[in-house]
């Protein structure tokens, strides 16, 4: 097995390994690379849905089926991220998966099935690096603060279907999933590192701030997430797999391919409630 860092901040390519037939020793190396590099990439993999689930279970307990995404037949925990003719992707946002849950996922595993000839890259961002890049006064200001996250980020998207009464899926789910509070600066449960735990799609406001102050603070923090030196961009190929640490990253799907058919399968591993960084 070869593990090659893509840059000094985030991302590594793992080669000469079959994800469907991992020894315990190989998995241990992959897991340490996952913690160190935050997102790891593989080429030329041929995971079936069952093998995809089996791999994800080595990282932890699986999340329940996603409330919005369609899934592979007979495999409800294998979501389909799909573009079809006449159904292009909507607007893309920087996001961390499912932070509208009290315990957002630990990690996600995305496997490419078929792709456009060009376009459709995904970009990942190290939120640990973003936190470390902040000016000292800003770090001091946000330490100990909390922000509300909610499922509103799906409102109006292609996944927000309406029922016969005209009620949207987001409205239905919002009735039993309340907005949750997460620390702006969270502590990674395994590494102990601080990470800025916000994202444009699901973070609604900073608690204890006026609406204007919250909007301005979040805008300032999001502006620091635009630093390309803290990011890694991945070009998908059929058989590519990406595994990322949802506790300390954001990602962005580049939707530059119109309605050209594209399909990826995603399995998500359960996490724990983010804890406040206090060191």
TrEMBL record:
One annotated GO biological process: sulfur compound metabolic process
Residue span, TauD/TfdA-like domain: 3-267
One Pfam family it belongs to: TauD
Keywords: Dioxygenase, Iron, Metal-binding, Oxidoreductase
Keyword Transcription: no
GO MF entries: metal ion binding; taurine dioxygenase activity
Listed GO CC annotations: cytoplasm
Family membership noted in the UniProt record: Belongs to the TfdA dioxygenase family.
PANTHER family cross-referenced by the UniProt entry: ALPHA-KETOGLUTARATE-DEPENDENT SULFONATE DIOXYGENASE (PTHR30468:SF1)
UniProt protein name: Taurine catabolism dioxygenase
Protein source organism: Enterovibrio coralii
Lineage of the organism: Bacteria, Pseudomonadati, Pseudomonadota, Gammaproteobacteria, Vibrionales
